[in-house]
Request: fold
Amino acid sequence: MSTRTDPGPRQRLLDTAQELTYRHGMGVGVDALLKGANVARRSLYEHFGGKDGLITEVLRRSAAEDEARYRQTMDAAGPDPRTRLLAVFDRIGEIVARDGYRGCRYLAADLALADPDHPGHAVTRAYREHVTALFTTELTRLGHPRPTTAAAQLLLLVDGALAAGATRPTTDPAAAARELAEQVIGQAPGAR
Reply:
């Protein structure tokens, strides 16, 4: 008896769509997705109901992976909340310096998905809420006087660094964002 180890059509569609939508944007064609995944059109509709369902699932999957990476980055930085928050910006610096970096998947999706009711928007909103909650927790631990506002400011810096990393990579946007993050974090008595 042999065990099947090859990914099935659903998994191949997800893998291919995650890669191609990042490299080419949300407007990548269905034919390119099907060809890349080596599946029939029927598989797309059976598993996802169509391209919108596939895009939404790719965003959901990517968000879960990226949220886990935020936690890993912060956990690897140790217990100090200030260090944990600044580690995020150090990690962004590494990410935007990579070959093939194309910007923030979630910002690109929000800009490309013209229908405001596209289910992908709910995924990107939830993703940002989860990241903001991670920041809020650390800022609260520091005793920041306005942790929710400061967390929103840090998320704005993250979004800006990721966008500028794709459009102006030679400006070292992560370092600039980190410097501004230090000022936001520095408002907490425990950050000094």
Residues 110 and 121 are 6 Å apart (CA to CA). The radius of gyration is 19 Å. The chain has nine helices and no strands.
